[in-house]
Amino acid sequence: MQISFGSQTSNANEITLTGLKTRIETPLFQVCGNFYTKYLGMKVLGSWDEKGDKGVILGLGSSSQSEAYLEIAYVETPKSYEGMSLQFRVIDIDSFVRKLHGHIEFRGPETRPWGSRYLYIEDPAGIQVILYEGEL
User: Fold this and answer.
1) Which residue ranges in the chain fall short of pLDDT 50?
2) Which of 39, 54, 62, 71 is 20 to 30 A from 125, comparing alpha carbons?
3) What radius of gyration do the chain's Cα atoms show?
4) CA distances from 27 to 24, 54, 101 (A)
5) d(CA 47, CA 10)
6) Pairing of strands 128-133, 117-122
7) 12-to-9, 16, 107 alpha-carbon distances in Å
8) Could you give the C-alpha distances from 62 to 2, 12, 45, 47, 91, in angstroms and in order?
9) Angle at 89 between CA 85 and CA 95, to 5 degrees
């Protein structure tokens, strides 16, 4: 069974989304930044620390022309991210297994019903991070 949400046709006058930026607010700012750069290979595209506002923008590559970004912002009070996951498609899931082994707990890789392989980890803020190889 296929699920449908609204019209799937395009209209020339409609708005066009060009990217996605997800924001994580955490008191574990430095630890989270290190997690995403060291273990997932994300690149720092920008950062700031002024007048109580501290954050960093990470990208999948070293260019701001990417289509997906992760913003990590410092806050004093921990947030709940229950039910949220960040999912990153990778070329070689086994290379991540080797990189993470002995450093970060993980589950998998598991082959999902549609044939993709999923590796499950958790970031320091408690967000489930899924690395997957294959189809969406």
Assistant:
1) none
2) 62
3) 17
4) 10, 11, 26
5) 36
6) antiparallel
7) 10, 9, 44
8) 37, 32, 7, 14, 18
9) 110
Per-residue tokens: 112: 């999902």
For the chain, domains (ranges, CATH) are: 20-133 (3.10.180.10)
Tokens of residue 66, six digits: 């990417």
Q: In whole angstroms, what is the distance from residue 116 CA to residue 134 CA?
A: 5
Predicted pLDDT at 87? 94
Q: Nearest 10 degrees: CA dihedral of 21, 113, 83, 69?
A: -10
The one-character DSSP state at 64 is: T
Q: Where are the alpha helices (DSSP H) in 1-136?
A: 29-34, 93-100
Tokens of 91: 């070329």
pLDDT given at position 50: 92
Beta-sheet pairing, 85-89 with 107-111: unpaired
Strands 20-26 and 68-74 come out as parallel
Residue 67: predicted pLDDT: 81
Q: What is the DSSP letter of 37?
A: I
